[in-house]
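Marked as duplicate of an earlier ticket. Keeping the data here for the record.
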Amino acid sequence: MALCIGLILLPFSHAAGPWSLYYNVKVGPDGPWNAINFSIEYPARDVVVHPSLFQTSMLINASACEQNLEASCPLPKPGMWTGSGSQNLIAWKNSLGTMPSEWTDEAGMYMTEIMGLKGSMHYIVTRFTLQAPGRPSSYLDGAAAAVSDSISVNYPGGHSYMMDVGFFSLYGQNSTVNWESNNGTSIQSNTTVPLAKLREAISSTSYGLHVGSVSQNVSGSLTLGGYDRSRCIGTPITASSDQYLYLGDISLGVADGGSAFQGLIPEYRTSTFLEKPVTPSLPISRPLIQSPHYISFSFYTDGRAGSMASIQIPFALLSLNLTYPLVASETPYFPCRPFDPSKNTGPNTILGRAFLQGAFLAHNWDSKTSWLSQAPGPSFSPEDVHAIDPETTTLAAAQKMQPWNTTWEGVLTPLRKTTNSSRGSPDEDHGGLSTGAKAGIGVGAAVGGILLLGAAWLLLRRRKRGPEENLPQQPLPKEAPAYNMPPPGLHQEYAPMREAPPPAPAPRELDSNGLQELPEESVHELPGGGRDSPRK
């Protein structure tokens, strides 16, 4: 019988309090996105990660591209895992090679399908180090982590790239994870956020998250054991004892000035579907992304019916770019992807990283409570960090709650109102959703950090794309834009021991009267055929 090695650590005296992470590293061939710089191992080294709801964190092996010469790797490479002296001492605890398709946690299964993950990985026991200026570091020894040895992201059309940015797990439902080591020993190790609470680094198994936007100069915000109140500028929508929020409606609107939607949907039409089931590109008018036009997501505030509250995502956040190795030259795209909710019992609507650019998400695993709120734009207030206690079920918004568009003043310019601007409200519901669509928030799941909707809704209900709609086959450059890294000296020395076919009616294409397309370039939509991570 295999020996069972337990790595469940006992708490020790430490001043518990929220930890805000450095969340301002620029990464991604499909964004760019904010990412987190995190210290791991001993001797210490930095890795770059996205927040996620994987059961364990994931690190990227620096040898992945070197071992697979045919892989398309984003360049230059961000911080990756290279092993360490301390890791070598406990390498016998590492698992044998496994594949993403063998994940059993919900976020892992969704991400494998959505991102088309292929390749091998293994599990290790490692150290994650929490750091903040003017504060002693907190060492999370004994944390479980997956290491990607050759996992690639694969698109249906054949494009792919080697995964180069890891994931920091915010999962907290279970405090341990198990695997069989390479010598047959049963290993039990700690999941990351519960371990931080166990080591009394934080007072609760909780987090507050706002992904922010690189292009709009909004740094990311991730706090463990608490949240930054300045990123929660509206009354939070609360989900208690339920892993899902319920989406009641989606609409288009403009917060100030004239509407660019005039003439978009003629009075004699009621359909909001695209007429062509597949189109090679999706034009987005410049007025939409330079003015306070938005997509409004209305969630039920109590269960699946009754009153609703809205999160409004400005179009400016949804104008992203594909770069090497996906395309030869920078190509704007709209972050959406088809989804078939009939294939599973999960959410009907899935919102990914693109949505969280303009939304604030918090979760208290101890009290089984989640919160979703409007997040600010570039003119956000200074950081205002507050702890989340284990019993917390209500979350206070920013002291200065304000309309989201006021945090975009000076960035988005209202359009001049026209004489016919009163004809039709920009917030008018054009089609809408079936009542009580279960919605999931995919923290880490992203193909381009996709904002993915499975509902019958404007611009997003599309058939799966065939070979003729794949991203343009272009020669790839030898170099790519650099990643930016945190300021030197941030870290310290460490003590010795990281969409589907639509139903009737048939889809129709929206008229584009009165809109102007971006000059000399198209906005591409990512190829279909996958799903996004559904959980909060």
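See parent ticket for discussion. The radius of gyration is 23 Å.
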